[in-house]
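Posting for a labmate who doesn't have an account.
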Amino acid sequence: MRAQELVRATKNTKIYLDMDGVLADFFYAYAKLAGIESGKYREIPPAKADPTLDKMVGTNFFGTLPKFPTADALVKLVLKYVSSYNICSSPLRGDFNNSAYWKKIWIRRHLNPQPSEIEITGIKEQHAVNADGSPNILIDDKGSNIERWRAKGGIGIKYQADEDSLQKVADGLAHVYGEDYEELEESVDVRYSIYPKLTKRFVIGEPYGKKNLKVPHAKYVDKTRK
């Protein structure tokens, strides 16, 4: 049994949710921005990966991300164990302030209830353990984030919403809280193939400005879709 499996949550444990890949579908939007009609990020040619990331700089990209259909169920699941949850998300390289701004806009519009804390940082593991030594939990799609979090004494659950079932998170939380595993209702088990329509009016990759800031409740127009 791995040492990580022996770490248990306590009454002071906080739960942090990553945003991109866990609550918001960064992958679909990333693929479409790269010109991949299928919306499958694994089909992005290596030569297009960095140039596509560069296209996001200075835009409202992170404010336009589609919400995973399982996001609300994930938050509800987490709130079975804690009275409130937190967000811990990485900023876009070379675009810290702008990407952080739009991530917070996305969170404000799409999550209910709202998180208690929003941490936009490239050093997530600094939140792995509380001052009293109690471990915190990170639910994240990126393996390296999970490994660094665990190395600092925290509890990591690797989960990617478009590839994993919510049952993976349910089992992980039950384990670290010392509970019996519980089967989720079929309605919140997540392998899906039909993508929900966007709900706000910002075009993926469009530079932000005063005009966009004045229409927070209009509908998205995703010009990358046919």
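Reply:
Got it, the structure tokens are right above this. Residues 186-226 have pLDDT under 50 and may be disordered.
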